[in-house]
Amino acid sequence: MDIIEKKKLLRYSMQLSMLRQLLSMKLINDFEYEKIKKRLMRDYGVVSNITT
Question: Of 14, 12, 20, 17, whose CA–CA distance to 40 is shortest?
Fold first, then answer.
């Protein structure tokens, strides 16, 4: 994995973490969480979500 891919994965992970915080704080609902998560996965080229 090259440095660009590592940075991309790190940015994705940070955004996913922030998204989870929004959900836990009840600032977004489950539907919004899933919709945004799918968009992040598409934008960052993540095929599988093994973190959930």
Answer: 12
CA 39 to chain centroid: 8
What tokens appear for 22 in the block?
């929004």
Residues in the chain: 52
The model carries a pTM of: 0.83
| For helices 3-24 and 30-44, angle between their N-to-C axes, nearest 10 degrees | 170
Cβ contact 41:49 at 8 Å = yes
Tens-digit pLDDT profile for residues 5-39: 999 999 999 999 999 999 999 999 999 999 999 99
Question: Is 44 within 8 Å of 12 (Cβ atoms)?
Answer: yes
